[in-house]
Protein: 3beta-hydroxycholanate 3-dehydrogenase (NAD(+))
Organism: Gordonibacter pamelaeae
Amino acid sequence: MTQTATLETQAPKAGYAMDDVRANVDPRPQLESEDYRPAGKLEGKAALVTGGDSGIGAAAAIAFAKEGADVALVYYSSDDDAQAVTGRIRSLGRRALVFKGDVGDEEFCRRTVGGIVDAWGRLDVLVNNAGEQTPQQSILDITQAQLVRTFQTNIFSMFFLVKAALPHLPEGGAIVNTTSVTAYQGSPQLLDYSATKGAITAFTRSLSENEELVSRGIRVNAVAPGPIWTPLNPASYGTDSSKVRHFGEGVPMGRPGQPYELAPAYVFLACDDSSYISGQVIHVNGGTVVNG
């Protein structure tokens, strides 16, 4: 389960286009918007984004770079995707680091944070975004191995990374976790995944009230995506499944969101614009009211 951490600082492949990476996902997830207007909200900051090689994590990482942050990415297996995102960050004039490994392993998390601090001398923002899901029709089909794996990746990793990052986060630092609309609505085919997302929401609220963080002005918040079009969806259900063909049609806006539509929420919670906000969840879900 554990992979060796690698720190890569070489230049991206010449001519490597981000559209090439997402070419096998139709339509291609949109990581950026031409209408985005950065304002230096994270100038001089250093951020760590897990699951930053694609989807929501990649969109947040690119937006952070546009706002002036140096960004370190953690990813599990998609080398080309990670290469493309780090290349994009560098093209924006910011520094990028990339670490390959399993966030469900505490030692890997410690090495990753240590590598960032060694390289840059600081860590200001932690985005716990990495996650995985394996749909099952029945609880009887969820094996112990799947259950442990889902919890290790989705929620154990957040404990590991906060433990590693906390000694380095400065006064006014920020932690942003990715939960999900499934934490509030449930999902019959994603029982273990939904359970981890409920745990993430409770973790966010509880950690935000911890005196060690409160006394240092470190804020903890979360984003709860609804149906967002990322490579995770066809990978989970199959490209020809009805679930994928009609993905997102059930929300009031009648469509899935794109990763770039999540990125401003992460920027807001990471920067001083949200200085009086902690323990909260921003719902970016196409208009679904969850009353949570």
In short: The two ends are 35 Å apart (CA to CA). The chain has one domain: 39-284.
